[in-house]
Amino acid sequence: MADLAVGDGRAGAASERRNGLAAVAAMLAATLAAEGERRILWLPVWFGSGIALYFALVVEPPVWLGPVAAAAMGAAALGWRRRPALGAALLALALCAAGFTAIELARWQCGAPMLDHRLGPVAMTGRVVDIDTLDRGWRVIVAPDPLPGLDPDEEPVLVRIHIAAGSDLLGPGDRIAMRAVLYPVPAPILPGGRDMQRELYFAGIGAVGYSLGPAYRAAPGRGLRPGWREGLLRLRTDMTRRINAVLPGSTGGVAAALITGKRGTISEHVKEAFREAGLSHLLAIAGLHLGLVGGFVFFAVRGLLALIPPVALRFPIKKIAALATLCVLFCYLMISGAAIPTQRAFVMNGIVFAAVFLRRLRLSMRICALAAMVVLALDPPCLIGVSFQMSFGAVVALIAVYESWGSELAGLLRRGPPLRRILGYGAAIAITTVVATIGTEPFAIYHFHRVVLYSPLANLIAVPISAVWTLPWGVVACLLMPLGLDRLALVPMGWGIDATIWVAEHVSSLPANLWATPRLPMAGLIAIVCGGLWLCLWRRRWRYCGLVAIAAGLAAMALTRPPDIVIADFGRFLAARAPGGYAVAASAQEIDRSFFASETGAALVPWPVPGAPAGDLACADAGGCTYTADGWRVAIVTAASGLPVDCATVDAIVAQIPAGFACRRVVPVADRIDTWRYGAIGLWLGKAGVTLESANLSRGDRPWVPHPISRRERERRREAAARRAIPPG
To answer: What region, left, alpha or beta, does residue 359 occupy, with left being phi > 0 and alpha being psi -120 to 50 degrees?
Structure first.
């Protein structure tokens, strides 16, 4: 009887658990159903999840995986359509597989061989694909002819080269000839850092370099005719040069960035001032720019047609103005280079003006979701780019606030006497800036590791200058450019740009403007993104659960810290934690220093001289140093005089030269050869011991991760291939 009672009790408890789970499931299903059409907003989220899954892998998946999974999940969703919950889950998986398929297709279309060793100097010819003006010389994208010393399967499709200022005046479509030195695309400077190799891989660029002396225009090849893309790129280049001729220096660079999307002549000082003042969005053609251009064209065309009574009475001038605006915005999209923020803004503005035909003009999250879906379908790799993330982060946050409190804010800020309305306009800019900053700050922390404190102040001053003065003159300059009268508009446009630069420089120099933040791990960023989407896309009270995920993602920063020692770039770059930042060896190249400073957000100090320790780092002589932390001791070898190292006296060895094999079975070793094989290597010293992590091993076996081979192995493979090519007998 006791056993029967225990059994009945267990059965009752199990029944109660099942009933409880069923009640929770029913409540969630009812809440989800109550969201109604808001569920469609998650379509681009699931599509983007498939793209993110591809980049999260450490091995390259087979090409059939995405299409097969998409077809299987789509068929299953269709078969279970009578069960809404299961059908919705299968549809989400089908969209995820569709995104996975899209990024696989993009890799197949854009992927190209990546150079894995220095090449040159070599005589190089090719066709100019695009060109940007720099402070000194030009940066050109070249489709090269076959390069000496490379097998056909090693040939990069495109290379990016810095050519000297004395070179011929070139344009897209021209043939170019020069002597050049080519290098592999720069690898991450520390594990988990910015992956420029992945970025340029999907842009088709497999090598970077510079010309030895000037580059010359070569004779065009037979049968080569420039296509419409080259014609468009040439138009952008010519417009940029005309702008820079009227407005030299950074002023012309900002003007070109606003009109053609090319910002090569903006000095690094001005770019940094814009970043540190929170005004970088003014240099990216996005919603503000296209919205102003669209509004100017719409009201101008409609006003002109209204002045012609026969036209105004017989034709729908409002629709004609909307159509003309769409055409102008498309031209602006093409001339500006169709960057990710511009694509998003064009889709959203295009939908708004297209809605004029239906007389249903309303800004909503649906438009943003459709824009995200279009942008991801056209350019799947953009998902992991900072432009896509910050652009859509700001817009999603703004629309969510607009949907929830737009009417109340509009009534509060637009009522009363003129002075109060002016103050309300300023308050609206400040609120918009704060909301957009909240939407973009997680991505800024992840990519740039800092927070800009006085961004609302800079935007409160600079945005009205751009909206009321700078951008309207830019529109007039484009209209006058075919007549050769663009100077009349570019000069006053430059006055507004100079005022904006002044604001950026002074706000960025305010004390305590920049707050350095710890590194935000990828898991933390994912938690913040998921929580933010949950908070912004739903409308019912359960959306506030997203705040928990956001808080957890931000808390993840407390669990990370940058490495204590980093060695990279074939041993040339060496950095160790020191008071006030990182001590960097003198052999480090300037570009590596710049990348490392931006990745860590720390100051760089000189490597200590012998006898003058810098915190935990001390050098006994010119070839040997030691780093001690948490009871662990690392030997740092900077020259051959620092070898050999007594393996029993250290817990790890870091060497800018080959360290040999004597200590590798005893302690961890990271030397010059290791950085050649595995990329940047970071060392963390903690209570658990010394931990090593390499950039290439953490990225996995992907097409954009180079796996260099020795010159002897390369020659052996070529000899073997030549023997196979010779027929027997």
So the answer is: left
Own/partner pairs for 239-242, CB < 8 Å, 24+ apart? 239/335, 239/481, 240/133, 241/133, 242/481, 242/486
What CA–CA distance (Å, rounded) separates 670 from 696?
14
pLDDT 10s digits, 245-288: 899 888 999 999 888 888 878 888 898 899 888 888 888 777 77
Q: What angle do CA 345, 598, 181 make, to 5 degrees?
A: 90
What integer pLDDT is reported at residue 686 of this predicted model? 85
Question: Residue 607: phi, psi to the nearest 5?
Answer: -65, 135
CA distance 195 to 699: 9
For residue 128, what are the CA distances in angstroms to 122, 207, 483, 485, 582? Answer: 17, 15, 28, 29, 40
Angstrom CA distances, 5 to 9, 11, 588, stand at 6, 10, 77
Tokens of residue 236, six digits: 């952008």
CB atoms near residue 27 (< 10 Å): 11
Which tokens go with 288? 């503000």
pLDDT (0 to 100) of residue 4: 47
Q: Report domain extents, the chain.
A: 1-34, 35-110, 119-225, 239-516, 522-559, 565-699
Q: Are the C-beta atoms of 460 and 429 separated by less than 8 Å?
A: yes
Residue type, 362: R
Strand partners, 727: none
Concatenate the DSSP letters of all residues of 11-30 into one string.
HHHHHHHHHHHHHHHHHHHH
Residue 498, exposed/middle/buried by CB under 10 A (0-12, 13-18, 19+)?
middle
Say if CB 685 and CB 566 are below 8 A apart. no
Nearest-angstrom CA–CA distance, 480 and 493: 13
* Structural Rg of the chain based on CA atoms: 29
The pLDDT of residue 104 is: 92
Q: Which long-range contacts (CB under 8 A, 24 or more apart) does 684-688 make?
A: 684/561, 684/563, 684/564, 685/564, 685/565, 685/627, 685/629, 685/630, 685/632, 685/634, 686/630, 687/630
Query: What pLDDT score does 505 carry?
Result: 92
User: Which residues, given as ranges, of the chain have pLDDT below 70?
Assistant: 1-22, 24-25, 29, 220-227, 356-363, 408-416, 420-422, 424-425, 709-729
- Distance (Å, rounded) from C-alpha 383 to C-alpha 48? 7
What type of residue sits at position 462? A
The pTM assigned to this predicted structure is 0.85
Which tokens is 239 given?
């417009």
Integer Cα distance of 669 and 41 in angstroms: 50
Per DSSP, the residues of 202-242 read HTTEEEEEEESS--EEEPPPTT----HHHHHHHHHHHHHHH
Opening angle at CA 609, ends 588 and 644, nearest 5 = 80
Give the Cβ contact number of residue 92 at 10 Å: 18
Check residue 410 and give its pLDDT: 66
**How far, rounded to the nearest angstrom, does the alpha carbon of residue 156 sit from its chain's CA centroid?**
23
pLDDT of residue 223: 43
- CB neighbours (10 Å) of residue 149? 11
Please state whether 93 falls in left (phi above 0), alpha (psi between -120 and 50) or beta. alpha
Model pLDDT for residues 431-483, shown as the tens digit of each residue = 887 888 888 889 988 888 888 888 888 888 888 888 888 888 888 898 888 88
Which stretches does DSSP call E strand in 448-502?
Answer: 450-452
Closest CA to 278 of 500, 52, 482, 21: 500
H/E element, 578: strand 573-578
Which CATH architecture fits 119-225? Answer: Beta Barrel (2.40)
